[in-house]
């Protein structure tokens, strides 16, 4: 079972994390990559790298033959699957072992058993682990499922047996909706997992998601490494994870941990795994959900509070080494929080963000597991999660403060991220008071969430940061910026003007860095003394009080963008100089409102109209798939479909034309 070279059958931040674990043990790494990832950090940092196919996962990261060919070609002795892709595919694990390689994970049989939610719940029941009331029988007829649904009562969940991540799951609150819920869950499960089997279980509103990390070797030792809370979720996808799970009755916590070990022992589990529970505080009860037979995204919070390197132990166990820990050796220190950093826009229904990262300035002093760097291209082919921010503190309140402070100093350009939204979750009263639950986001943001915008003071400071950035050190801005700055539209001599999204109302800057005055469109002004920009810091004094703010200035297409640290977090301000304003005004109206274009790169999943169809404004014309999400693209105006430029299956670039409309005449 010895090996010296490990092929990592994954990408992004988890590939880099496994590479760090391999280097710690003196093992060489092999990266397999798609054409889209050719220049990714995990490829550059590997000892060996092999391109295994095109950007689509089916052509690369899900291509078992190509991965095994790469292992043979590079002399790898083991394969680590990471998480996602093939990590819980029993067939892949068996194929790795059949090829004479070591699979760094559990036995294929354990993966297969826990991969079936029906079989997993039966195993849990046999091990004495509580499960939710429901139906998990082999009779999958409509009549039997509807009969069981009536017996169970509402609310209930229809869930895919082979599912995960919320796919193939439907909530039923009215039994009249059960037939449609069963049909749609089956259809999605068949398409996503190749298995249409479903089961029913009672739905527990306001429940928390608690899980227990287990670790077992091939010599009969199996431990738990404590618990985690992953209750902040959107569409059954975790957003923020923490360890340990806070505010659990200690006897119940002990019972959860013991039950997880009992279940893992009953299937002779080896390697790292996670037993997931639903905890219902109103009943004081917990129920088995599933067992993940792989490393979890949230494993760093367990590492933080235990000091145990899970990847290192996965590698050691795969080499046949026994665990050198007993359960009594596992100690828990403080509290850890992990924030998932994703390329998406939460203010616009979590629209995926794509493009090239032009600025990557993460916070110092905290752990960041990242799959990208400045210059990385974020495409539409893979999951939107780019990185994970992990903090550790003596207690939960301290961990929250550290996480917020880290987000407040994290600046990224070129691609939008969900950092402001995650900050809003961390600072929300429900999260801080432990009132949050797995379906609680609508309660936390009943009117939706909006991106915070800079206030008057912060807008003035952002303009000052750009103003000083555009002036070479030691010269005055109006001298360095050229004679055009002295024309009437720019203001009198010694002044300059900048514009935000409004091209009509300028923000005027006058004075010298010793005394710099910004006058905003509403007439408010801000005066700074000894203002300076150096090393991405804006400093000076306002009303005699010194300040220093992180301030990154970058060119963003046809304008400037200022990333400014504020008391409310990192804010973005888009600004235009005089020439930018002229160019922007010249381009107004250049793109017709009668043309539907792709808001991002993606694959066309559906075209719902045909030439000659009459549509209303807002009707869905095209469905685009990007980063595993479906985006419905609405008609920009009412009219008649004139031309269609795409078909299902097409891959389109951002801003590509999709549908041309003949607008209806206004009367």
From TrEMBL:
Where does the Biotin carboxylation domain lie? 2-446
State the organism of origin: Sulfitobacter pontiacus
Xref: InterPro entries: ATP-grasp (IPR011761), BC-like_N (IPR005481), Biotin_BS (IPR001882), Biotin_carboxylase_complex (IPR050856), Biotin_carboxylation_dom (IPR011764), Biotin_COase_C (IPR005482), Biotin_lipoyl (IPR000089), CPAse_ATP-bd (IPR005479)
- Which gene name does the record give? accA1_3
Q: Specify the protein name.
A: Acetyl-/propionyl-coenzyme A carboxylase alpha chain
The protein's UniProt keywords, in alphabetical order, are: ATP-binding, Biotin, Ligase, Nucleotide-binding, Plasmid
Boundaries of each Lipoyl-binding domain copy?
A: 585-662
Work out whether the entry's keyword set contains Nucleotide-binding: yes
Q: Name a GO molecular-function annotation.
A: ligase activity
PROSITE patterns assigned to the protein according to its UniProt record, in alphabetical order: ATP_GRASP, BC, BIOTIN, BIOTINYL_LIPOYL, CPSASE_2
SUPFAM superfamilies in the record: Glutathione synthetase ATP-binding domain-like, PreATP-grasp domain, Rudiment single hybrid motif, Single hybrid motif
What cofactor does this one take? biotin
- Residue ranges of every copy of the ATP-grasp domain listed in the record: 121-319
- Kindly name one Pfam family recorded for this protein: Biotin_lipoyl
